[in-house]
Amino acid sequence: MTIREMAEQREEEFFSEYAALSRMSRGRDVPEPECDIRPVFQRDRDRILHCKSFRRLKHKTQVFLSPQGDHYRDRLTHTLEVSQIARTISQALRLNESLTEAIAMGHDLGHTPFGHAGERVLNRVNPEGFIHCEQSIRVVEKLEKKGKGLNLTWEVRDGILNHRSSGKPSTLEGKVVRLSDKIAYMNHDIDDAERAGILTEKDIPKELRSVLGSTIKERLNTIIHDTVINSQGKPDICNSREVSQAMKEMRQFMFRKVYTNKVAKAEEGKAENMIEALYEYYVNHLESLPEEYREMTERGESTVPRAVCDYISGMTDQYAMNKYSEIFIPKSWQIYS
Question: Which backbone phi and psi does 72 adopt, to 5 degrees?
């Protein structure tokens, strides 16, 4: 018996009856030999961790554009916090932690530079639309490894695709990540907003603090415990009515005070103009696209708008700014910028 087979056997003996078992995976689009050490979901986690798109997340905006400070979250630190929360919940519920972690690590691979501002622009200008969770699937299926993709299992791709609030993950592990994404951004965005001087704990409605807690530590502790307690022995991931309602109201509060705050979003208009200009330029100058994206259009695997979105969405904030400067700002001006 191989090490992998022993690991699969331990899953069957220990995991909840509602957990996704590695041995029962629906598999990969392209069959391949099994690893003798790692079960399939662990291999997927490793593939995501080592891919280029994952590394680029460290230079992509979470909420605050070009913040003046080292401790603001970026898209990578957000991903790691989602993963940590999701693993804690999955482990407590005896779910498949490797599947949970793989979904969490991959859920934002398709995010644009400049956060949701970039996503809004590409969704508006591209006739085919643009949604970051769908782009994450394109990344792992078609764009990574020069068009070969990562060949991930069906369960991991399902969780990545359905991590938004409106998604319907097919596994409990996917549902854990969907909830953990909310838990993570709600709490770390409060922390970043406080760091930016936009918000204080006292600004948060007293009734929400009384339910969820008055610090990040208290809120994480409350929500994670509530999730575990209310989901044990159930074929679903649940919260109590009180905590669920408080989380909903906290998200609404954050939209009013942070996500649409004029100070926090002061530079977003400039970022949106930059992304739109890059999109229009590349649509009309296909020869300027990198070869791998041009070849996808030539082979009929992608339309021009989609190939342009593939390229732009993969950019980091700084790379997008550099490309904009290279294309639109005269070199003599760039010297003094």
Answer: -75, 145
